[in-house]
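Why do we care about 3D structure at all? Because function follows from shape, and shape follows, mostly, from sequence. That is the central idea of this module. The next example makes it concrete: a single protein chain, its amino acid sequence, and then its structure expressed as tokens.
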Amino acid sequence: MMDIVCLDLEGVLVPEIWIAFAEASGIPELKRTTRDEPDYDKLMKWRLGILKEHGLGLKEIQATIEKIDPLPGAKEFLDELRSLTQVIIISDTFTQFAKPLMKKLGWPTLFCNSLEAAEDGTITGFKMRIENSKLTTVKALQSAGFDTIAAGDSFNDLGMIKASRAGFLFRTTDQIKKDYPELKAFETYDEFLAAIKEVLE
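And the structure:
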């Protein structure tokens, strides 16, 4: 079998985009993430409502994202991992957000969603690439003959983690660790890389 590693993006390789934007815009409500609200559809609709209320659009969010750097050590970790096996980042973020971050990470492969925006940059909606995208993508890779190894930090990563040959939690919450004691949880890239290498052997 051929191995492929499937990684979540935010919280694993880069900071949470919405938290960074909440801080930059001074709107603390935008700090809610999939760690707090497992229903992504509900979360996004709520976020778009807040953006509209404050008259903020794509331009403002993109300006914040330009200033975000990957987490310390993330690019080195990813470079080494990509020298060992195929890696795909599967994220619920949007192409319009991710581009500057992908550049800083050396253009890894990213499967994510897209935003719908009006001419003036108002975000009018969002288009999910596929229902339950992380789990669905992992299952599709498996049906294409891949053995998946998956890792993430949030509720919406659990499906792909549990469906994979090996699955890990990375820098997750104490609550998720407590609820899923059977999943190995790591805090540093070195430990995380060592665990993946062990699976690949």
